[in-house]
Amino acid sequence: MPLSHPASDDAPTAALAPDRPGGAARRLRTRALWAGLLLVPATVLVGVLGLASENAGRCVGYGEGCSGTPGWVYLASLAVAAVAWIHALSTPDGPAPATSRTAAFWTTIGAECVFLLLVATAFG
Q1: Which residues have C-beta within 8 Å of that of residue 29, sequence separation ≥ 6?
Q2: How many CB atoms are closer than 10 A to CB 21?
Q3: Which end of the chain is less congested by CB atoms within 10 angstroms, N or C?
């Protein structure tokens, strides 16, 4: 009766197992997904809070005292957030998250914060 090494029994099944992404890469992808999806409710909430400001009534009613920020700044921050979000979600998985995925995730968070700040200050 030959002696077998425990690792030799696992070798064929390990070779046939599909390459699964690492836990850290999956967590980062999940966080990036939620960061992008929660932008819409956060924008609604910040918009309502902006409308509750002191100058919002005058801005909405008379068009006076509104923020002078041009519209392209809003679009630029959303475009940066969208491109970074797509990159964070579509980067291939590895045992550890790619450096570019981590950078894209934090760029998404930063661009979304800039957009939300612009929305909060739009009425005053």
Answers
A1: 21, 88, 89, 93, 101
A2: 16
A3: N
CA distance 13 to 22: 19
- Domain span at residue 77 reads 22-120
Cα end-to-end span (Å), the chain = 85
The Cα 50–Cα 121 span in angstroms is 7
For 96, other C-beta atoms within 10 Å of its C-beta total 14
Residue 26 covered by a domain: yes
Which pLDDT score, from 0 to 100, does residue 12 have?
A: 52
Q: Would residue 10 count as lying in a domain?
A: no
Tally the domains of the chain.
Answer: 1
- The answer to whether residue 43 is domain-embedded is yes
Distance CA 73, CA 115 (A): 8
| pLDDT of the residue at 67 | 87
Joined together, the tokens standing for residue 75 give: 């679009």
Residue with tokens 């700044």: 73
What pLDDT shows up at residue 53? 86
Q: Considering the domain boundaries, does residue 91 fall inside one? A: yes
For residue 51, give the amino acid letter.
Answer: L
